[in-house]
Amino acid sequence: MLAAVAALSAGLALASMDAVAQTALKPGAELSPLYATGSDLADGKELADLSCAKCHGANGVSTTNGVPNLAGQRPSYLYLELKAYQLGDHPGGDDPHSTRLMKFFSDEALAKVAAYYASLDPASPPDTPAPTYVDPVAAGKAAAAPCAKCHGDNGVSGKAGVPSLVGLHPKYLVPTMQSYKSGDRPIDPKNVDMKKALDALSDEDLQHVALYYALQTENLTRAQTPNDGGTPVTKETLATCAKCHGETGVSTTAITPSLAGQDATYMLNALHAYKDGTRDDDTMSPRATKLDDVEMKNLAAYFAALDPKPVDIAKPLSPDEWAEKCDRCHGVNGNSARPEVPALAGQRLDYLEAVLSKYQSGARKSPEMAAMSSILSQDDIKGIAAHYAYQKPRGAVFVIVPNK
């Protein structure tokens, strides 16, 4: 066996060997670029100038949006990527352009191209100021300031008929705010403040506002509004709501709101609206039509008296905190010390963002990267990409040594 011993690192981007590992390769073939001689590098340069430079730039430094830098990238990683394109087995899916270019390359030619790009000085980080990281929770608190007038400080309602927003899952609250903003869900004409507040918020603002309310665990309490109560709710009546909203008013699905601790008047008004058709919902409307006024009042009082529970979402990490996790594979500050793992430092920001988004959507395949990216927000993706794009990339020298 042979082992690779590395110095420090440079730049391409988040790709994994998982899909490429399934490619039929001779044992140890991925190490072939590490044996390249000066003559091999010259051959690799000639091939790269003919086939790759148009997109990836002279000397492997891209000037094209969405196209990665290759200069200083790790040699075995580049070889495996090129081989995967050749075989149509790339984790990013079929790329007719790349597949066509690589189709007639021999394994030796692929190794020479990979070795050539790995031998180059990596691209410098952008000379423009790095994007400023904005804490999404802090941004949400600022954007939600106008909401407090009606919905209460920290989203705990103090007005009968006005819902609490604290503890609602973003996957419910964001679409709800968007439907109000678009007009799909009518707003009471008397409530002009809500319309003005929502019109002033972008989709990103709505995500931040929802995240802020969802994470107010220290302020998670029942609405501070009257609850006149009623007769105990029957099991049959409760069953109408419990399947979706839970017997304790805590929903088990993100898109269904929890009702525990919600304002009783708001819930009662909502049930009446579903029954009379003022509000329309394929799930709620048929159920509401089966309830009489007494049953509606009892249900609203029952759920309002319950204690709300925290939403099962994590507080977002900063780009630096995310990088601590990514560096475990991609090296300190994104400078990979492994020949088969891509370096991230100094890579194009737009490319890093695009690749992370593709892993998240499944357009780019890798079990490990899919698991990691699945929990990323758009803020996380932008922050991680900016973090690595502005790191100083370092070239790496890999030395083949025999096992003892």
Task: Give your account of this protein's structure.
The protein is mostly helical and 404 residues long. 46% of the residues lie in helices and 2% in strands. The protein has a two-stranded antiparallel sheet with strand order 1-2. Helix 17 packs across helix 18.
Key words describing this protein structure:
404 residues; mainly alpha; two-stranded antiparallel ribbon; 46% helix; elongated; disordered N terminus
The helix-strand sequence is EHHHHHHHHHHHHHHHHHHHE
Give the uncertain stretches in residue-range form.
Answer: 1-23
Shape: elongated
Number of helices: 19
Largest sheet: 2 strands, antiparallel
* Protein structure class: mainly alpha
Q: Measure the end-to-end span.
A: 10 Å
Please count the beta strands (DSSP E, at least 2 residues each): 2
Question: Could you tell me the radius of gyration in angstroms?
Answer: 28 Å
Helix content, binned percent: 40-55%
Strand numbers in spatial order across the main sheet: 1-2
Instruction: Tell me the β content.
Output: under 5%
Rounded mean pLDDT score? 89
What oligomeric state is this? single chain
Task: Detail the topology: elements first, then pairings.
Layout: E1 2-6, H1 18-21, H2 38-51, H3 53-56, H4 75-87, H5 96-102, H6 107-119, H7 136-143, H8 148-151, H9 170-182, H10 192-199, H11 203-214, H12 235-245, H13 264-276, H14 284-288, H15 293-304, H16 319-330, H17 349-361, H18 367-373, H19 378-389, E2 398-402
Give a quick precis of the structure:
This protein has 404 residues and is mainly α.
